[in-house]
Amino acid sequence: MTIDERRESVNMKMKAKTVLDNEYYRRLHELQSIDFVLVELQLYLDTHPHDMRALEQFNHYAQVRKGLMRDFEASYGPLQQFGNSFSGYPWQWNDAPWPWQV
Amino acid sequence: MWIYEKKLQYPVRVSKCDPRMAKFLIEQYGGADGELAAALRYLNQRYSIPDKVIGLLTDIGTEEFAHLEMIATMVYKLTKDATPDQLKEAGLGAHYADHDKALFYHNAAGVPWTAAYIQAKGDPIADLYEDIAAEEKARATYQWLIDMTDDVDLQDGLKFLREREIVHSLRFREAVEILKEEQHAKKIF
């Protein structure tokens, strides 16, 4: 998918998602769950750098997270700044909700 | 540098407007053993600590900012629908006079945050022991906060934060052992 096609697809999906539905919370929770796995593995690996199984788990879930994040952003807009996320038109970063509003 | 992610680390829900509880929770926002102190303490100690534990201090320091945002979210949600009278009744009259409903880095008693709460000794063992103590003190504070509310939604978020303190403490203890082993190995060599 080109960036233009991606942008168009994001815009169309965003229009359909003006109200936060159960699906939003389900997918947000899914991301938060995998982030918990990753933060735990990250801190564990900081003090157990030779644990190969933990390392494999870390790399596996890091890969899974990329897909979840991409899908989430396609529906609900960018999660990160500074070029780590794409934006549809108009610039989506300013769009609510912010984390404390949901 | 740091990248912000537009989501909380863990969901924060509250089941009622409760400015009194918000006043107590501020302890973990701008108090001595709060999340701001933790984040700034660890991220500042990084520069002079042995390489083997820089990653850990960076990661835990970063996670503390996610916790700071969770506490802010709790305070925001507990106070957003409160009237000035309710804030006054909850002991937040002085806060309202200076800040309206804005958050501010002070403790539950209204004392502003100070860098005097944190230390960087330049001695890796001394710094890590301070970090372990900080995590244990924060864990205790979370327990007292959990004890003071019957809001099960709020308790859920606070219990998550309490458990994170336990994990951080454990990792810092392991970091101490890593440095001790390294020192020991150097002596033998």
SSE map:
The complex is a heterodimer of chains A (102) and B (189).
Chain A: H1 3-16, H2 22-47, H3 52-76
Chain B: H1 19-25, H2 27-30, H3 35-45, H4 54-79, H5 84-89, H6 93-99, H7 124-147, H8 152-188
Structure description:
- The complex is a heterodimer of chains A (102) and B (189).
- With 102 residues, chain A is an all-alpha fold.
- Chain A has one domain (3-79).
- Helices cover 64% and strands 0% of the residues of chain A.
- Chain A contains 3 helices and no strands.
- Chain A has helices at residues 3-16, 22-47, 52-76.
- In chain A, helix 2 (22-47) packs antiparallel against helix 3 (52-76).
- The longest helix of chain A has 26 residues, at 22-47.
- The relative contact order of chain A is 0.17.
- Chain B has 189 residues and is mostly helical.
- Chain B has one domain (19-108, 122-188): Ferritin, CATH 1.20.1260.
- Chain B has helices at 19-25, 27-30, 35-45, 54-79, 84-89, 93-99, 124-147, 152-188.
- In chain B, helix 4 runs antiparallel to helix 8 (152-188) and helix 7 packs antiparallel against helix 8 (152-188).
- Chain B is elongated and about 70 Å long.
